[in-house]
Amino acid sequence: MATSSAAGMEMPGWLDRLGGFVERTGGFWRRLGDLESRVFAADLAEIAIDRPIYVTGLARAGTTILLELLASRPGVATHRYRDFPPIFTPIFWNRAFAHIYDRDAPPAERAHRDRILVTPDSPEAFEEVLWMHFFPDLHDPGRSNVLDRETEHPAFERFYRDHIRKILLIRGGTRYLCKGNYNLTRLSYLLKLFPDARFVLPVRDPRWHVASLIKQHRLFCREEERDPRILAHMRRVGHFEFGLDLRPVNTGDTARVESIRELWRKGELVRGFARYWAMLYGFLLDRLAADETLRARALLVRYEDLCDRAEATLERIFAHVALPLSAEERARAAARLSRPGYYRPAFDAAEETALAEETGEVWARIGEHAAGTATG
Questions:
Q1: Structural class in CATH, domain 3-375
Q2: Nearest Cα to 130, choosing from 173, 204, 186?
Q3: Per-residue pLDDT tens over the stretch 232-269
Q4: Are 126 and 87 in contact (CB under 8 A)?
Q5: Phi and psi torsions of 299, nearest 5°
Q6: How far is CA 315 from CA 47, 104, 197, 321, in A?
Q7: Would you call 53 helix, strand, or coil by DSSP?
């Protein structure tokens, strides 16, 4: 688990070595995962996948805090930091070796340096390891990364359903929760697999969102140059949102993706990230508009509403995913939420113009969508 300290990000040597071994021997771990499924077949057969919850959006939109709030509810099961590296075999690992993580470890600020404290038992996003194994081209910017209702992959679907049941089994849960930023282009496929799924889709004011992305990008570039093990870890867990191996998601418009990559290569980070923001959320809005079933299962949540109108927004979120939350619990959760005070956007006039040009239309559409949802 990479955390931050005064000296920079810290990558434990054992985590790097074991993570590298699992990465190099993925086929073996997949077969071991199949064996695990056979060994525990009777237990898994008794577990139903009921209304799985997916939190997904462009990184820095508020996905992690939403993950933590939802994961805190009784019966909700999700991946934890201690589940990595052997994601393919969660039962074997948790029953035999997960003690390698110190259960009494004090909370430490995560590597992003964004006020979020984590321990080995904190919820985290690790599903991407499985997606990358079964769909090896998912992070190729030169081709569409969209998975939809036409997508078929029986081997993955069987393995994935078993995996979800395993997480429910080891956590003693009844509802599965996943944070996966890249699932933004897989909503239709996930809904095909789980017709009763619930999607929570955070979106953030592009001015602040782009500022946060650039802040994180520069931080991870600096730390990955200092310690290449951090870059290797980011690749293994499927995080390409910032850092030295920055890769955009291809929503089907390869020419636009290449224009974003060219802006990044030239150092025009503001316009590049702004165009990327608009492409992803424009794609999302188009999907929601075209699919009534998906629209009913999805809740778009503005980060600003989550911070400024926390209790009302939390009430909507928990009602949407069908999880109980009392007024007292809602008030306690709301007390955790506030806008960041440790940085502010600092764009010059040309950058402000670029932001407005690239994101204005999509940001207006998001406002219209939110107004329609509130009155619909």
A1: alpha beta
A2: 186
A3: 999 999 999 999 999 999 999 999 999 999 999 999 99
A4: yes
A5: -125, 115
A6: 28, 33, 19, 10
A7: strand
